[in-house]
Amino acid sequence: MATRTSPPLLLLLAALSVLFCHAAAVHNPAGGGARVAAAAGPGDDTTKVYVVFTERQPGTAELPEAEAGAAIAAFHHDMIGGVLDADSSSAPDRVVYHYSRSLRGFAARLTDDEKNRLASPLLPLLSREDTVAAFIGFIQPTDINIDTVPRHCRGPPKVVYRPQTTRSWDFLGVPRHNDPTRLKFENDVIIGMVDSGIWLDSESFSDEGHPPPPAKWKGVCSKNFTSCNNKIIGARSYYGGNTTLSVLDREGHGTHTASTATGRAVAGASLGGLAGGTARGAVPGARLAVYKDILAAFDDAIADGVDVISASLGSVFAQEYAADTMAVGAFHAVRRGVVVSVSAGNSGPMLGSVSNVAPWTISVAATLTDRRIISELVLGNGRRVVGSAITVFPNLGKPSLLVDPGGCDHEQLDGKRYKGAVLLCGMAIDISSEAISLTGADGAIVYMFGDEDKDTAFSFAVPAVIVMEEFDHIIDYNNSTSHPMVTVKKSVTVKNAAAPSVVEFSSRGPNRATYGVLKPDIGAPGVDILAAWTPEATLSGSEVDSRRTKYNIISGTSMACPHVTGAAAYVKSVHPGWSHAAVQSVLMTTATPMGSGEPEAELAYGAGQVDPVRARYPGLVYDAAEDDYVGFLCAQGYNSSQLAAMTGRRASAAACSAEARASAVGDLNYPSIAVPVLNYGVGFAAEFPRTVTNVGPADSVYRATVTTVPGIDVAVTPDELAFSASTKKLSFKVRVSGTLLPANGTLGASASVVWSDGRHHVGSPIYVFHHKHVM
Ligand SMILES: *[C@@H]1O[C@H](CO)[C@@H](O)[C@H](O)[C@H]1NC(C)=O
Ligand SMILES: *[C@@H]1O[C@H](CO)[C@@H](O)[C@H](O)[C@H]1NC(C)=O
Ligand SMILES: *[C@@H]1O[C@H](CO)[C@@H](O)[C@H](O)[C@H]1NC(C)=O
Ligand SMILES: *[C@@H]1O[C@H](CO)[C@@H](O)[C@H](O)[C@H]1NC(C)=O
Ligand SMILES: *[C@@H]1O[C@H](CO)[C@@H](O)[C@H](O)[C@H]1NC(C)=O
Ligand SMILES: *[C@@H]1O[C@H](CO)[C@@H](O)[C@H](O)[C@H]1NC(C)=O
């Protein structure tokens, strides 16, 4: 299978990039956590990769690294050796990866029978529980996608779009600076990027002026990546357990997201002159550690000492938490104080499409900034047509003959020459950049049905412009003359007065794993983002594209996620000891409410647009720790074996208390409130206990202000909180009641609670919605 020679996720992205139209879902057959290389089973058809968690593992603290690794590997091999089908391959052939640093367990290819034998309580290894480790459960890793490209067949494969990358930090009001020695505290923040690798030589990753890594850093550079510096302080790749492979970014995605979060300011960056300006990240002083895999990356990143993990990856739909590799990895990160920022997914605007939904992660929606990129055509009759594409090629701007080849797929264009012509292609489906390129055509005009992608521009391997309803004008013109001419112009940036608003492709709530937890959490710029690129990939990602670029413009919740990662690092640089929940809380409670007309309202943008500068001075924090998340899972109805797989604790030690079991998911001390109701027009009432910790001046008095809509009552008790030097934490209850009425152009009703002492404003969105409405 295709995954034998190259990391499947990356390989599939590349394979798709020849087409205009592709499913955005990049399926990773090896599963999120593990690359399958050496692993051989009784046949790839019958085995699946499972991550097997163990309660303990042999103590190896005294052993040198190589011996420790061998001891743990031997232990894992021993564990599955007894359950493998007769006359099949040996245990070492089946194990894909050993997790031993922050997680305990391994990933292995197993048949259903083998998996069931391993899960059987009759397994002899349980009797050795006191000497070694007990099997505690497993998950089948989720299929993982890179969240760059808007979904389905609407976009080109590789999203390359281009607007203002760096413009996005200006838009968010983050002050520009490029002097890491001036902001020394930033130097202690380490961001772990779980992505497609990195292009080290980008100016965005210069380590000029950076001191050596902070003392807490325990990571390494992979053996084949000797050129780490004081900016990129770690780099690991894992393929089938092979850690000598390159972390070189062949896709561009990892380089792009890393530079968005923490790139140095580089003046004069642009994509072929488009969207020019200074490219920069939020925290240019912060350090980068790069991990090219999922669960293995969490295992290492946590142990290496990163402060924030950024993962612009996700499954296609929300998974139940214990079956979601990302959720499990993030759980282990968060319990160690690491902040985890993830992308919401690119399957919007469908309701219920948000995919990274664990309450211990920050799920980021993609918003539009005040700058957009458009593409323009001028017809021979003088009519201008605005299209959506990033068109940056030499020799644009001259008239070409418009030719209708009857279709733009391989079959129709095979062997034809259209030099000097712009092809009038039909629907975006079945159009091949490669075939168009082979004809020698000057460009192509493609029709896109629907306007879901009207706000997003993509790059193509050939000068191609996507046209929506105005396609009719082009056809009329084509039929009106025997020599139709068209001029494809270079893209330009235009002002987007509607900003910030959530882009159509950004996945919407509600959270299908738990309707009572609002997701996504927050919005951040994710459309037309200019950031660093790898010369290993072409501008459009297609092999027939010959253009290379140092900076590229792409779109996706993948691009929004590193903005929140950067904002989290910005907060961590001033509050290094804060928990994941505290950082998540301050980002959400200081976000700018949006409400700019999306019918999905809070299900599109959560708390609103991230505001990194305000987030540093939040006043109050909704904190939570591991036990709170375990309590939440108990309220969700998790049984002991599911809880064991999530927490890495033995099932008998992971039982829920009766109190936890009787609690509600809405009791989690979350900075937002979701109220799913069963019926329109029927009265409801729900109560949400919350506790805030004062992180501002000691003697502060906060008062609650409620906003709501007719029919929905929100009561806060008490509505005044007086903090002092000895009273840092205070609790209150929010009671939401009333009757939800249908329609009004929205799915539900928006309300909010804002606590204020006059200087700080700590806002929580409340969203009441009819959950049956979501299919
Ligand atoms: C890792 O991959 C490299 C390059 O393909 C190969 O030379 C090496 O033997 C592999 N190591 C292991 C442990 O599989
Ligand atoms: C090591 O990296 C170089 C480029 O940095 C690459 O060409 C080579 O294939 C890599 N080796 C392995 C074993 O991956
Ligand atoms: C464009 O014009 C040509 C020549 O008149 C015609 O054959 C073709 O069908 C037209 N294309 C469309 C899409 O109408
Ligand atoms: C354009 O001409 C083609 C073929 O002559 C015809 O099939 C098509 O319907 C015409 N389109 C319009 C919009 O007149
Ligand atoms: C826990 O729930 C899972 C999923 O529903 C089920 O497969 C498993 O058997 C349950 N375990 C116990 C101990 O009830
Ligand atoms: C319905 O819409 C109107 C006008 O936008 C608004 O004033 C009212 O509060 C809305 N009602 C609900 C229940 O959302």
Automatic annotation (TrEMBL):
One of its GO terms (molecular function) is serine-type endopeptidase activity. One of its GO terms (biological process) is proteolysis. PROSITE patterns: SUBTILASE, SUBTILASE_SER. The active site is at residues 195, 253, 558. Residues 187-608 form the Peptidase S8/S53 domain. Belongs to the peptidase S8 family. This is Uncharacterized protein. It comes from Panicum virgatum (Blackwell switchgrass).
